[in-house]
Amino acid sequence: MNAPHKYLIKGVSVLGRPKTDLLIQDGVVAEGDAKGAEVVDADGLVALPGLVDLHTHLREPGREDAETVESGSRAAALGGYTAVCAMANTSPVADTAGVVEQVYRLGREAGLVDVQPIGAVTVGLAGERLAELGAMATSAAAVRIFSDDGHCVSDPKLMRRALEYVKAFGGVIAQHAEEPRLTEGAQMHEGEVATRLGLTGWPAVAEEAIIARDVLLAEHVGSRLHVCHVSTAGSVEVLRHAKARGVRVTAEVTPHHLLLTDERATSYDPVFKVNPPLRPASDVEALRKALKDGVIDIVATDHAPHAVEDKECEWAYARPGMLGLETALSITLSVLGEDWDLIAERMSRAPARIAGLDGHGHDPVPGAPANLTLVDPAARRVVDPAESASRSRNTPYAGMTLPGRVVATFLRGTPTVLDGKAVK
Ligand SMILES: NC(=O)N[C@@H](CC(=O)O)C(=O)O
Ligand SMILES: [Zn+2]
Ligand SMILES: [Zn+2]
Predict the structure, then answer these.
(1) The pLDDT of residue 1 is above 50
(2) What is the longest distance spanned by two Cα atoms in the chain?
(3) How far is the CA of 305 from the centre of ligand 1 (A)?
(4) 294-329 confidence digits (pLDDT tens)
(5) Using one digit for the tens of pLDDT, what is the confidence trace for 120-144?
(6) Are strands 224-227 and 172-175 parallel, antiparallel or unpaired?
(7) Going from the N-terminus, what domains does the chain have, and what CATH number goes with each?
(8) Which positions bind Zn(2+) 2 (predicted)?
(9) Does residue 70 have its Cβ closer than 6 Å to ligand 1?
């Protein structure tokens, strides 16, 4: 590719501020001579720091029919992302230096976003003994986040050991908070709708009990804990309490938990089956408030592509999970409104800090690495699953009209998306 390495983004509003021109040169936002630069007309567009997703399932190795590092990276770039953290529940599991290095290398080869592998906490996600955390940390992938996501590290002694272990190198344990004994056979949120539909419930306390235990463990050993996909009002209260005590805990919420409720299950359409399950409106309200006031630190997609045969079947047999990368910004925009500074904080700066991705999460101002995205806030689009860059089609937003459109994304000064289309 012989793209010019100089771009002039003309008439852009950086985070809603008055219009300006941004010169992109040699991988950074520059000042100086724009002569010879390719002009990008950014009239009406808002520049944000490139988004960072702390929770992405890329399915490679093992389920390349559902997603690959490359297809997921393309979906991410189209969604405005410049970095994603790839979850470890692949096949083989990312529980060794070899597998995390493979995912890291595939990310570099795709070259559409920075792919930062997450390592498993336990061997094979089996919850029995710790994986090679140190070897993954010192590998070429330099893993800092460890998670058994998809499964909860439910053994408190193992969880304690993991928290202690990663403290030495500034790592963090990202917990999928689900007490497995309380969710046996669970199909959806335990509540009125589940009773009506006759489906086994996933009670809020299964999440809240683990978060309560883990913030106490994190406090006890002085380590960092991150809570994946927080979904209940009770979890928010536990987190609020822990943060007030000074516990080193951060938390994420997904776009779908900010928008959709358990009422969706009445359709019996498995596209709405997800872990943790969609919750009632009162929880959605509490999550929105917590995202605004900072008890929840970030929006993370939990992009979970699944092949057609795993999704278009009976509810009980369908795999949980939904797509998220290409719609996350639009949904966050509809929830938070055009508060660009807050959106940048929750979708770029804070996740970059938590993940330790130093090159990301910087506002696009002179001197910063040129990882940025240009958004048209006035655009509206109807979600069409067939248009997704993902290999899977399990978006819960099909047919919905969403605000905002990503027009361009730059990774270290090179466009990955231009005119709303992937460059490669
Ligand atoms: N969220 C989901 O429902 N599914 C995820 C696993 C997970 O995030 O727990 C998946 O890997 O498919
Ligand atoms: Zn999970
Ligand atoms: Zn997940």
Answers:
(1) no
(2) 67
(3) 9
(4) 999 999 999 999 999 999 999 999 999 999 999 999
(5) 999 999 999 999 999 999 999 999 9
(6) parallel
(7) 6-46+367-422 (2.30.40.10), 50-355 (3.20.20.140)
(8) 149, 176, 229
(9) no
Residue to substitute in 91, 149, 153, 226 for testing ligand 1 pocket (most ligand atoms within 8 angstroms of CB): 149
Identify the nearest ligand to the CA of 304 by its number.
1
Q: Are 357 and 347 in contact (CB under 8 A)?
A: no
Query: Is 324 a pocket residue for ligand 1 (Cβ < 6 Å)?
Result: no
Q: Is the pLDDT of residue 167 over 50?
A: yes
Per-position DSSP letters for 104-131, written without gaps between them:
HHHHHHH-SSEEEEPBPSBGGG-SSSB-
Scanning the structure block, which residue is given the tokens 């000074």?
246
Residues designated as active site: 302
Ligand 1 binding pocket includes 302 (Cβ within 6 Å): yes
User: What token pair was written down for 268?
Assistant: 């019996």
Please give the model's pTM, rounded to 2 decimal places. Answer: 0.98
Closest CA to 248 of 321, 297, 197, 209: 297
* 268 pLDDT higher than 50: yes
Sign of CA dihedral 389, 352, 278, 119: positive
Q: Which ligand is nearest to the CA of 91?
A: 1
Helix (H) or strand (E) holding 13: strand 6-14
Neighbours of 137 (CB within 10 A): 21
| Cα 320 to ligand 2 centre (Å) | 10
